[in-house]
Amino acid sequence: MNYRNIPKTELKVSEICLGTWAMGNDFWGDVDDNASIRTIQAALDSGINFIDTAPAYGAGHAESVVGKAIKGRRDKVILGTKTGVTRTSDSFLRDLRPETILREIDESLSRLGTDYIDLYQIHWPDVNTPLEDSLETLLKLQEQGKFRYLGVSNFTTELMEQAKGLATIVSLQPNYSMLQRKIEETLVPYCLKNEIGLTTYGTLAGGLLTGKYRELPNFDENDNRSRFYNYYRPEIWSQIQGLLSLLDVLAEKYKCPVSYIAIAWALQQPGIVSVLVGAKNEEQAISNAAASTIKLTEGEVQEIDQYIRKELATVAF
Ligand SMILES: NC(=O)c1ccc[n+]([C@@H]2O[C@H](COP(=O)([O-])OP(=O)(O)OC[C@H]3O[C@@H](n4cnc5c(N)ncnc54)[C@H](OP(=O)(O)O)[C@@H]3O)[C@@H](O)[C@H]2O)c1
Fold first, then answer.
1. E-assigned strand segments in the chain
2. Cβ 274 under 6 angstroms from ligand 1
3. Does 20 sit in the ligand 1 pocket, CB within 6 Å?
4. In sequence order, which residues have a C-beta less than 8 Å from that of residue 241 and are 6 or more positions away?
5. Which atom of ligand 1 is nearest to the CA of 229?
């Protein structure tokens, strides 16, 4: 495993971060808690030291599972969680009101079994709450030692700039993969210029870029990933198959699964500190950690880039 520094922090994170949304057991199909605990421990045993979670994942359930899994190993883990999205029975509400943040952080600390969070992130912007008010509350919590560094997720350049005048933001967590490259235009240059680390989600496009789904999948009724990612719409799905064929050739060359190529590609893009990858079992976690061993040639990175620009521009950009 390779480790990279989030700029301007003491956080040296594994370049592959374990995502835990599925472990909330409410959006990605049935996921067994004991399997999730074994998955987290297998990830840590494989060199992953960075875990991403959120209260929104199963209304706190994922955080509780993470807390159980890291018991006794807290000092070996860089823990990222979030605030500002409330999971209701059928949706996700954006809420960054000060009173919500104050409640959420204590609940997160309790569920995670810790007295500090390494990276506390605003999950999504909330248009109904002035950003100043949310940041003022967050800064107080940081001063109290409840979290070490502040990050944001799903922010625009404009919001980043607004936040910059009010607080030190060390990281941005956006959606980024071969199939979603919109951040390259303005957000990546902004983060590079301002030394903000990119920790990106969507690396495997919800599993699609592992190459294991070759037919449009029929996910279980309670597996909603196709609501979050639009790649599973028939018209987009058919366009993506050519990219998978190109990735097959590279996977054959490196004698590895297609997922390694998707992860390696993301890690070789400018500004990326760590890529988030979800896993539902030990095998997936171990495999995803091992993707750290692959380095594509500059020519291969360009070949993928050109293919996406030519064939998938309307999907990815
Ligand atoms: N900030 C945000 O708004 C936001 C949004 C989305 C996600 N996230 C974070 O990012 C993390 C990753 O989520 P994602 O949406 O990017 O998911 P992803 O990593 O693209 O996909 C994860 C899914 O792919 C499949 N998979 C993973 N590794 C595999 C392997 N080696 N072989 C075969 N299948 C494999 C598993 O599902 P199956 O086995 O069922 O196919 C797994 O649940 C989340 O857990 C969360 O922490 C953040």
1. 3-5, 12-14, 16-19, 50-52, 78-83, 85-87, 92-94, 117-122, 147-153, 169-173, 197-200, 272-278
2. no
3. yes
4. 214
5. 15
The closest alpha carbon to 183, from 166, 165, 169, 199, belongs to 199
User: Distance from the CA of 202 to the center of ligand 1, in angstroms?
Assistant: 7
Band of residue 201 on the pLDDT scale cut at 50, 70, 90: very high
Query: Measured from the CB, is residue 290 less than 6 Å from ligand 1?
Result: no
Q: Ligand 1 mean position to 203 CA, how many Å? A: 8
Residue 136 CA, ligand 1 centroid: distance in Å? 32
* 272-278/197-200 β-pairing: parallel
Residue 92 pairs with which residues in a beta bridge? 87
The residue-averaged pLDDT of 69-81 equals 97
Domain 3-316 classified CATH 3.20.20.100? Answer: yes
Cα separation, 119 vs 81, whole angstroms: 7
**120 a catalytic residue:** no
Active-site residue, selected from the candidate residues 57, 120, 149, 213: 57
Tell me the pLDDT tens digit for each residue of 144-170: 999 999 999 999 999 999 999 899 999
